[in-house]
Amino acid sequence: xxxxxxxxxxxxxxxxxxxxxxxxxKVDLQGIKKELKVNVAEEHQKFLDALFLHYDNExxxxxxxxxxxxxxxxTVPVAxxxxxxxxxxLFPLYIxxxxxxxxxxxxxxxxxxxxxxxxxxxxxDLTTRYYHFIEQYDNKxxxxxxxxxxxxxxxxxxxxxxxxxxxxxxxxxxxxxxxxHLSKNLSADFGLRGEVALMDKVIHALDTSNxxxxxxxxxxxxxxxxxxxxxxxxxxxxxxxxxxIKTEIVARWIKLDPxxxxxxxxxxxxxxxxxxDLNAAFDIENEK
Length: 288
Hints:
A hairpin with a 4-residue loop joins strand 1 and strand 2 (26-27). The protein is an all-alpha fold. The chain has helices at residues 9-13, 15-19, 29-39, 45-50, 53-64, 93-104, 108-117, 122-134, 140-163, 177-184, 197-206, 211-229, 237-256, 258-276, 278-287, and strands spanning 20-21, 26-27.
């Protein structure tokens, strides 16, 4: 299918058919990924791939723990881990650098220097590199999404660490005023309630003992952020990027709680249908 540069009308209008396998009651993320890769213009491939990198991180963590590497949604083929040293060039630069630095730490002198600075887990180290790597992408959606994603991750990590009586700073990624508050402020809200809108929303999301409800509220924050970023985007690459993240959320809930998953699915189909019929949408808005 040939695409008009920067416009993915036919791809977006076909998204509902890609999402749900009604017969098997599941979302085929691998199939959707392949379809998007085939239909997204070459200049936009790197933006799409940026959203698959967290699967590469997942595989690296499994590899470090000597566990099977099985997630085939990353940018690096699973088979590459079988002969890792021979396939290093296939990995994103931040992962290559991560392993290169780990190799340097084999000398006792370097180990001591690193320990004197601060002990940091491989997961936090790689995740920090991951977010830094993402910052290079010149795309408004990715910049807004990953800024939000990192802040959300840090806030949730801070609450979890404090609950377990752990040093919060050991679990934070990046260095900005928010991470500074999270790592040093001792108040219940880390001094950020009323100052950072996301903190207020997260506190509300966590204000329940029901696990599923808590997770639903957190994913609702993600869903709403995508809607906010793409308010005036209809058929461009940013819409495709938002679609993929929403599809991941739906897939997660189909497994976690099928009823909620299908509810999200219906909502997304409704949203897409409304975007196709823009005249109807404007008529409804004028009636208010």
